[in-house]
Amino acid sequence: MSEVEEVATPEEFVENEQETNYKPPPEKTIEEILQIDQEDESLRKYKEALLGQAQTGPVIVEPDNPRKVIVKRLVLVAADRPEIALDLTGDVSQLKKETFTIKEGVSYKIRIEFLVQREIVHGLKYVQKTSKLGITVDKMTHMVGSYAPKTEIQSYTTPAEDAPSGLLARGSYTVSSLFTDDDKNEHLKWEWTFEIKKDWKD
């Protein structure tokens, strides 16, 4: 696991952010953004590039889903191995029954695939806490960024990290994941498991 500074776990995230002086900017609709500083040509072009499809009207990909961010898949990406994906569109409580196998010491990344619809989302964050035998061994927050609505799937890939290695590192791990944003909206929270083995084979 990467040695990163301790940051908020899914359970602690909102509480810890309240202790800082950071205040996210007020949430604005796409229509409000388009109306601001219309006489500024360079800003107008920037907003056009930022908003893309959303300039011409609401982008709604799944009309029956009220969420602005719809998280679709978590994908494990390791060099010279087929990608392994978790479908996040169903009953996420069942995901702990599926276990990724990761070879000890290998470098890997996690890709989150998601849709953004209806409005811009500001300051998306991916928060992850990893535990083994009930003991937290790794915590991290990845700043994903702000995204305008699009009909296409958008994605974020974490920086590469090395799986732990050695006899004591092998075994099963539980990961608590949270996709949130500056406004503390909980877009999706789920748990999943992986197992560190000496080799990719079972």
TrEMBL record:
GO terms for cellular component: cytosol; membrane. The keyword Cytoplasm applies. It is found in: Cytoplasm. GO terms for biological process: Rho protein signal transduction. GO terms for molecular function: Rho GDP-dissociation inhibitor activity. Gene3D superfamilies: Coagulation Factor XIII, subunit A, domain 1. Its main location: cytoplasm. Keywords: Cytoplasm. InterPro entries: Ig_E-set, Rho_GDI, RhoGDI_dom_sf. Residues 1-27 are annotated as: Disordered. Belongs to the Rho GDI family. Inhibits GDP/GTP exchange reaction of RhoB. Interacts specifically with the GDP- and GTP-bound forms of post-translationally processed Rhob and Rhog proteins, both of which show a growth-regulated expression in mammalian cells. Stimulates the release of the GDP-bound but not the GTP-bound RhoB protein. Also inhibits the GDP/GTP exchange of RhoB but shows less ability to inhibit the dissociation of prebound GTP. PANTHER family: LD16419P (PTHR10980:SF3), RHO GDP-DISSOCIATION INHIBITOR (PTHR10980). This is Rho GDP-dissociation inhibitor 3. It comes from Phaedon cochleariae. The lineage of its organism: Eukaryota, Metazoa, Ecdysozoa, Arthropoda, Hexapoda.
